[in-house]
Specification:
- This protein is α+β, with helices and mostly antiparallel strands and about 260 residues long.
- Helices cover about 35% and strands about 20% of the residues.
- The strands form two sheets. The chain has an eight-stranded mixed β-sheet, sandwiched between helices. The chain has a two-stranded antiparallel sheet with strand order 6-7.
- The radius of gyration is 22 Å and the shape is elongated.
- The termini are far apart.
Length: about 260
């Protein structure tokens, strides 16, 4: 109490705290945004088991104001849950991206965020300013809505081996080249053919922002602005078309509506 009253503790470097989100508490996204604004780090390292398109785009909104900050993402590809489009977007955004899966059929499952002044040659973060280890994945739900729990530490209270831990994980990842992402996208497509609509929603694989299955009107609207294919054509197994023209005049006339080809 005496130390706090005499202001000898830097308010930016408070002792580690366990934070719960999703129960009327600040979300992980809000906490990260606050810390980035506070410290203005030059390096941000992220490790997530699962990455969704909506989760990555949510993170881009948070990091966009810090255009001089280097970002590195180590994404797990175990069980083909991470969305290949999220990986493509991260690479095109100028992020350094690596892919990793646990050996022996096990799941790569860490979730970690660490910021600092620069990246070391071994992949470590020099002078760590903020760290998070918890349950959140890089999904819209993980950053905003789900009930999650994590340990947040700042400044002098960052565990001394946290940077080395991040470096060790980064070293086992493989660079996310275009060929590796495309090969992974094919496995991702094969896995999704066996998933139920509920699983697609839970894993945030569905196209709409809230994770629900997209309607025709939503697909039609998205086709006007989309610049990316959901996955390589080589991953496709079938195409669909109705067997009745819009006029109803020819029952078995095969006819593609224009919007179907756009989608």
């Amino acid at each position: 109490i005496h130390l706090i009253n005499s202001h000898t503790i830097d308010s930016r470097h408070m002792p580690p705290s366990t934070q719960i989100s999703g129960l009327d508490n600040h979300s992980l996204g809000q906490v990260l945004k606050t810390e980035l604004c506070k410290d203005k780090p030059a390096a941000l390292g992220l490790v997530f088991a699962f990455v969704s398109v909506s989760g990555f785009r949510e993170l881009v909104k948070i990091t966009r104001p810090f255009e001089h900050m280097g970002c590195r993402l180590l994404a797990g590809i175990s069980r083909e849950v991470t969305h290949p489009t999220a990986l493509m977007e991260a690479v095109k955004a100028g992020w350094e991206v690596r892919l990793v899966s646990a050996p022996g059929g096990h799941i790569f499952h860490p979730k970690m965020i660490i910021s600092g002044l620069s990246f070391g040659k071994d992949g470590s973060i020099k002078n760590p300013l903020f760290t998070y280890i918890g349950s959140s994945n890089l999904t819209r739900g993980g950053l905003r809505d789900h009930v999650e729990c994590g340990l947040v530490s700042q400044g002098d209270f960052v565990p001394p081996d946290m940077s080395a831990c991040y470096a060790r994980l980064w070293q086992v990842g493989r660079p996310a080249t275009e060929s590796r992402i495309n090969a992974y996208a094919e496995r991702f497509a094969l896995r999704n053919r066996k998933r139920s609509p509920d699983d697609l929603k839970a894993f945030e694989v569905a196209d709409s922002k809230d994770g629900s299955i997209a309607t025709y009107d939503q697909l039609s609207e998205s086709s006007k602005s989309s610049t990316e294919e959901a996955m390589p054509i080589t991953a496709a197994a079938a195409a669909w078309t109705g067997l009745e023209s819009f006029t109803g005049e020819y029952k078995f006339q095969v006819e593609f509506p224009r919007d179907v080809s756009l989608v």
